[in-house]
Design goal:
The structure is a single chain. The protein is α+β, with helices and mostly antiparallel strands. It has a domain of 114 residues: Beta Barrel (Lipocalin), CATH 2.40.128. The chain has 13 helices and 24 strands. The protein has a ten-stranded antiparallel β-sheet. Strands 3-2-1-14-13-12-11-10-9 form a nine-stranded antiparallel β-sheet, sandwiched between helices. α3 packs across α11. The two termini are 30 Å apart.
Length: 506
């Protein structure tokens, strides 16, 4: 399984004013929080961050802490753009990567509030053109709620495009046409899926007639007063935003992705703290409560629970401390980005850290740990692993033998042959190529996972030189169903191809 840890793009149409209300989510937070005296000494955290920057383990870092409905600390450190001398402040927009997802689901919730959507209806009900298809599951069970909780049966994906490349990102309709194929029956397993968020963005645009970038701005960013936040395609605002750097501190050229609603929002630490307070139900007195508490609860309601006790929600992850205290959290990671945020509703506490380095994850999580322990000495991070535990693969009768079928998605349509001889010997053949041995075979619940290398006849795979393959196959009604993720030359690239295999009579 590709876990969340391993998952490492504003046009405004003429109809916006007619379609969108002036305020939907601003009922909770639309003005700057008033300053409050600091009750905690964050000097040790400052020293930790400054040391990491001095040792060139970090480039830029922004931190914010909200407690009791107020931002009690926010600060920037290091460089947003080292080459131009632009320093980080609490108002510096950073690429959020996957922390974009809760903003996307909040946008959908505003449409639920108006009766335009139902989270428990099939996504295809709102996708008139490029619909989700099988055969590895029934698309009728791929609901909006499941897509937002990574349990809709769609596979993982990450693909980025540099501005000087001749090929540029597809629109949502094209992406769903090429990759909107179910790898698993919806609800059967967890698979972190950016494709599902493309579907959610397309659905929101379809029911309003508004480009998703404009929609999220009008529905969430403007009502909440998040003036530092924008979609990453806004070239004018990128000039004052954090540049992305690789693990060695080298700037990464600007890129966009094929799945914007999953990870292309920029926001400052200040804005993200305000968004956290909205989720913690901080209200502004005297304003119409347009989005009620029950709808915010729908964002946080567990949908798919893993064996660790952590569950996915419509946009978030939710877990519990040993004491039973609930923790809502989300992180983001892609080339040049490592971000994290935690919210503890019982304490009315939120902590978030933004970094602009590929390898900033440990620092970001460590800073949040250090801060939260000031409030809760017994704090421990809940697990981010939703999938079942892994163990050495055991070749049961459900797997042993020869299998034939097809590999599809991304324009690929190849014959596939799988032979499983024993618990440590299996091969995969694609098209008319030779059989390749599958290595690192493991059991993940009832699934078989493994790795191999082969060439997939797909334009995206060829463009990305994606030949390193990761398999995940589930027994399902006498078949083996699942996906192959092809890893490309560019860091983080994951291209999904769906496998459907039947037992061979030979």
């Amino acid at each position: 399984m590709i876990t969340r840890r391993e998952m490492v793009q504003m046009g405004l149409t003429a109809s916006v004013g007619a379609v969108l209300p002036s305020s939907r989510v601003g009922a909770y937070l639309a003005k700057e929080p008033e300053p409050t005296p600091r009750d905690h000494d964050f000097q040790a955290v400052r020293e930790r961050i400054l040391q990491a920057i001095a040792h060139e383990e970090a480039t830029g870092v922004a931190v914010a802490v909200a407690h009791g409905g107020r931002i009690i600390w926010e600060e920037g450190f290091g460089w947003a753009n080292r080459e131009s001398g632009l320093k980080v402040t609490p108002h510096t927009p950073f690429s959020l990567a996957s922390i974009t997802k809760p903003f996307t689901t909040t946008t959908l919730i505003t449409l639920v509030a108006e009766g335009k959507l139902s989270l428990d209806e099939p996504a295809n009900q709102y996708l008139p053109k490029s619909k989700l298809v099988g055969p590895n599951g029934n698309p009728e069970y791929a609901t909006l709620r499941r897509l937002g909780a990574h349990a809709g049966g769609l596979p993982s994906m990450f693909e980025h495009y540099f501005s000087d490349e001749p090929t540029q990102p597809p629109n949502a309709e094209m992406l769903l046409h090429d990759y909107g194929r179910l790898a698993y029956p919806p609800g059967s397993c967890y698979e972190y899926s950016n494709v599902g968020y493309v579907a959610l963005g397309a659905i929101a645009s379809n029911v309003t007639g508004v480009d998703f970038r404009a929609l999220i701005t009008r529905r969430v960013l403007e009502p909440l007063g998040l003036s530092d936040s924008f979609f990453g395609t806004n070239a004018a605002r990128l000039k004052n935003s954090a540049v992305r750097y690789d693990g060695s501190g080298k700037p990464i050229p600007y890129y966009t992705t094929s799945t914007p609603p999953s990870g292309e929002l920029y926001a400052s630490a200040h804005d993200l703290a305000k968004f956290a307070m909205f989720n913690l139900k901080t209200r502004v007195k005297g304003r119409d409560q347009a989005l009620d508490t029950g709808l915010i609860d729908q964002l946080h309601k567990p949908v798919f629970e893993g064996t660790s006790g952590t569950a996915t929600t419509f946009g978030w992850f939710v877990g519990r401390m040993p004491s039973g205290k609930q923790v809502l959290f989300k992180s983001g990671g892609q080339p040049g980005v490592a971000t994290t945020m935690y919210m503890l509703p019982s304490e009315n506490l939120a902590c978030l850290v933004l970094t602009n380095r590929s390898n900033g994850r440990d620092l970001a999580f460590g800073i949040c740990d250090q801060i939260i322990k000031m409030f809760l000495p017994g704090w421990t991070q809940p697990s981010e692993d939703i999938g079942p535990s892994r163990s050495p693969f055991v070749a049961t009768s459900a797997f042993l033998g020869q299998w034939v079928g097809a590999l599809a998605d991304g324009g690929a349509n190849m014959q596939a042959k799988l032979e499983i001889r024993s618990s440590d010997l299996a091969t995969l053949t694609l098209g008319d190529k030779w059989a390749e041995k599958i290595s690192e075979m493991q059991s993940e619940g009832t699934a078989l996972t493994g790795k191999t290398e082969a060439k997939i006849e797909s334009a995206d795979a060829i463009r990305n030189e994606a030949t390193m393959l990761s398999l995940k196959l589930l027994p399902q009604d006498g078949k083996l169903v699942g996906r192959i993720l092809a890893t490309g030359k560019s860091p983080g690239t994951l291209l999904p191809y769906v496998l459907t295999l039947n037992r061979s009579s030979m």
